[in-house]
Amino acid sequence: MKKVGPKRAALLQRLGLMEAEDLLWHLPRAYQAIRQDISIAAEGETVVVCGSIAAVRINNYRPPYRATLLIPHGTIELVWFSGSRAYLAENFAVGAEMCLQGVLRSYRGNLTITHPKILKEAPPEGVLPLYPLTEGITQDTMREIFIANRNTLLDKCQELLPSHIVKRYRLPGLRESLEALHFPNSQDEKTLQSQRSRYHKRLIFQEIVLFELGRKLVNTAQRLRSGKAIATQLTKIVPDIEQKLGFPLTGGQLKVLEEIERDLQSSLPMNRLLQGDVGSGKTAVALTAMASVVQQGLQCVLMAPTEVLANQHFRLFATVLDEFCQVGLLTGSMRKKEREQAYRAITDGSWKIVIGTHALFTDGVDFSSLGLCVIDEQHRFGVEQRAALGRRNPGVNQLYMSATPIPRTLALTVFGEMPISSLQTVPFGRKPVMTRYYQGKAQYKRILQEIQQQLEEGGSIYIVAPLIEESESLDLADATRIQLELQKPFGTFGVELLHGKISSEARNSIMDRFTSGQSRVLVATTVIEVGVDNPNANYLVIYHPERFGLSQLHQLRGRVGRGYEQGHCVLYSPKGCGSEARERIAVLLESQDGFHIAQQDLQLRGPGQLLGVRQWGMPEFTVADPVRDTKAWEFARLEVAEIINSDPALTAPENRQLRDYFTRKQILTIVH
Ligand code: ADP
Ligand code: MG
């Protein structure tokens, strides 16, 4: 692309932008109006002013430096609180004519612009897109790239929606919409600002239709395959498993197992979601169900989202089912030789139970007779992966597990008609985690004291921060700095840093050192959210809880108090937070019930995009929001049902584009 060399390409990649098409879908997060007529501009608006410099005051030793710009209807004060005098002297000589851009303020009755930007030429009055950025790429760079490649980009827009839908809802075209969003017109300013312009609505509708249709295609394909009816005999196997586990299963667990058994015994492939808080006993349920399938001579697989978790599950299964069947492990970081051994044991059927990560669904992994596939922490598993799983193992029974209960009102949107089993019980042997909220720098000392005390008593500590490294644009605590800071007081206890950019091998050994107590303080990003287990860690500090969703905080809180000791969770806002955030945090202080917390989160959730819906296992949407866009969802579902009923293979000419799209995504192939 024009204006993108290797260096910029690398930076764009950090934003997930690999191809031209990705750039098209990198939508502005907001818009900024630029006004030249400052008589109609409001304070805080970005304006462009053209005039000549009437006075310059830069001779004082220290900033602020000042200058006065004479414009047709008055003057504007220019102020610099930092910067080089040489630069100012060079550019702002008395009499110089120029156009400047900046944010208009009124200070002591004077119109003021701080740190104005010199423009080479006055841009036309208008609206500018503001893109999500990464360090090293500025708004100007981003806009420059878009402008230079305008036509190349827009030519890639292919209408996807069938024309009757476009007509029925009077939607603007895809090309027209993306053009309007990236190259905005000033008439559209207001609606663009609200993110509810007709162009936004069109993209939202399209995204929902594609999502719903993709899911329907996969489900239909699955239903068309007859699965194997497996004559499991739970009642026979349960006492045996209970003995191996060392505890009796609860009524709740048995009820869920019965639901699972009914699915297994039917010849329709199972496609069920099991939800329950961390520690509610899902793994024990999965283990029992898998054992019952193995007993019928079939293989089972359990897929975890991370290697840490896969290793953990593997150790548990291998121990508990030691005499019952062979359990194997397959992860991406295994050496080639080990991996090939694993492939062989899977293909010849000697491994009855296989635990692993996504590596389980790559080429080379062919089960001899797969009966049940369990997917733990399902929210990292999208419809494309489900399609791939179904393609490789037609008709296989699938059980999805989620530790983030989804609010009832959202379940249909998120999971469609997937049947749901719930473990509503409080986690086993768990005392409620004592949760407190600290705010302001003054409380930091208290936290240090509490950490000190915990460490002296032999406990381990988690610290969670929203960022890995310091960011210029966000004033937030970062894990790297916290780790450095804590080295001083607690270095002798071992303070380690864990985040997603650390290689999985290094991550495993960090986790090993932490669980074995060699290091006792773990500073991390939310990577520890998923299932990491250290029963000796009873104290957790979460920096900037206002930045996280409630369900996510609840998940994080589930990391502590897993042994017999009292767990503590300190939510810490170094700079305090607003009343809205405090209201949300209060929910967490009062409740330990994941279902209740999720429901409250939904109710209290403002339009704030920040928290997102990812925490509930939503696929990531670009523009759609399942909480906000419920009406659009209703209509989309109707349209999708009509498409599926009248043309399930998408062979009609007007569904041609959809057909190509889902074929490209490898979702459609399994229909035939
Ligand atoms: P989840 O997978 O939902 O996080 P687990 O199945 O790992 O939950 O269970 C959490 C803890 O509770 C484990 O230590 C497990 O051994 C224990 N546990 C599970 N079921 C029972 C039960 N019926 N009685 C007592 N302890 C149980
Ligand atoms: Mg689990």
UniProtKB/TrEMBL annotation:
Residues 263-423 form the Helicase ATP-binding domain. PROSITE patterns: HELICASE_ATP_BIND_1, HELICASE_CTER. Residues 443-603 form the Helicase C-terminal domain. Pfam families: DEAD, Helicase_C, RecG_dom3_C, RecG_wedge. It comes from the Bacteria. Keywords: ATP-binding, DNA damage, DNA repair, DNA-binding, Helicase, Hydrolase, Nucleotide-binding. This is Probable DNA 3'-5' helicase RecG. It comes from Desulfurispira natronophila. GO terms for molecular function: ATP binding; DNA binding; DNA helicase activity; hydrolase activity.
